[in-house]
Specification:
This protein has about 250 residues and is α/β, with parallel strands linked by helices. Helix content is about 45%, strand content about 20%. The protein is globular and about 50 Å long.
C-alpha cells in the first residue's frame, strides 16, 4: 500500500502529511485528537539526512505540541550502505533518532509505530521498535537480516537456517513471526482508522496503569518480552529479566 492510500484510510477526518523525497511528516486528525505523523516511504534507506529529519520532527513535536501523540509510519530497507554514511557515523545518527523517540515517550507523548510496507534492520529498530507499541499490515515485510546474509555472517549453512526458520520465529521474517516474539502488538487486517484510535487509547490506558502500579509498588514498563513468552515465540527473554530483577539465577529452559 502506498503512503497516500494508507493516509486516506487511516485518517478519514483529514490529514496534512507531506513527502520530501522519502521522508514523511505532518499532522492528522484521529477523532478529536490531532496527532503528529512522521515516517518514510519508497523503501527508504536511512542515511544521515533522513535520520536527522525524523529526529528533528520528533523534537519539534515535543517542543511545540506537548503531549501530542506521534504515529511513525515505517517503510525502510534499513540503514544506507554507503561509505560516506559510515564515515559520518551513521550509527550515531540512528542512535540519536532512537533517543529522540525515547525522549518523546518520557515527556508523555504516546508513540505508535505502523509497518505498512517494509521494515529492515536498524531503520526499524530506531523507529517502530522504539514506539510504545508497534503494529503492522498483513502484507508487510519485516526482518532484521535475510537468511542468506545471516548465513554469511554466522557461518551457519543456509540450509540449516532455512530449516530453523520453519519452527523458530527468531530466524523467520514476516509480521506473524514478529507478532509471536512480542515485537508487534497486533496485525491490523481491517478498519485501520478504528485500529489506530484503539491503539492510542491502549497506550494512554497503559500509561495510567503504569503510574498506578508505580505508586503501589507494582510492575511497569516494556511488556514485549512477556508477550513473546505468552505467545510462545520468545521463551528465554522474560525468565532472564525476572531472574535479574529478583537477583537470582536463570533456570535453563
Amino acid at each position: 500500500m502506498d503512503w497516500k492510500t494508507l493516509a486516506a484510510t487511516l485518517f478519514p477526518l483529514g490529514h496534512a502529511i507531506g513527502a520530501q523525497d522519502d521522508f514523511l511528516s505532518g499532522t492528522a486528525q484521529v477523532g478529536e485528537q490531532t496527532i503528529a505523523v512522521i515516517g518514510t516511504t519508497g523503501h527508504a534507506p536511512i542515511g544521515v539526512e533522513i535520520a536527522l529529519a525524523q529526529a528533528k520532527a520528533v523534537l519539534q513535536t515535543v517542543r511545540e505540541a506537548p503531549g501530542r501523540p506521534i504515529l511513525i509510519l515505517v517503510d525502510t530497507q534499513g540503514q544506507r550502505l554507503r561509505h560516506r554514511d559510515e564515515m559520518l557515523g551513521i550509527n550515531s545518527y540512528m542512535a540519536h533518532l532512537g533517543k529522540c523517540v525515547d525522549l518523546a515517550r518520557r515527556q508523555g507523548h504516546a508513540v505508535i509505530g505502523l509497518v505498512y510496507d517494509q521494515a529492515l534492520s536498524g531503520g526499524f529498530i530506531t523507529s517502530g521498535l522504539m514506539a510504545d507499541a508497534c503494529y503492522a499490515l498483513p502484507g508487510a515485510t519485516i526482518r532484521v537480516m535475510g537468511l542468506p546474509a545471516m548465513a554469511r555472517i554466522t557461518k551457519v549453512p543456509l540450509e540449516t537456517l532455512t530449516e530453523l526458520a520453519k519452527s523458530n520465529p527468531v530466524f523467520a521474517p514476516g509480521p506473524e513471526n514478529y507478532l509471536r516474539m512480542g515485537g508487534l502488538q497486533e496485525i491490523w487486517h481491517d478498519d485501520l482508522a478504528r485500529r489506530l484510535a484503539e491503539a492510542l487509547r491502549l497506550v494512554e490506558d497503559g500509561r495510567a496503569a503504569e503510574q498506578s502500579g508505580a505508586q503501589s509498588g507494582g510492575p511497569a514498563g516494556d511488556r514485549r518480552s512477556a508477550l513473546g513468552l505468552a505467545r510462545g515465540g520468545r521463551l528465554c527473554a522474560q525468565p532472564v529479566i525476572d531472574a535479574i530483577v529478583a537477583g537470582g539465577h536463570v533456570r535453563p529452559a
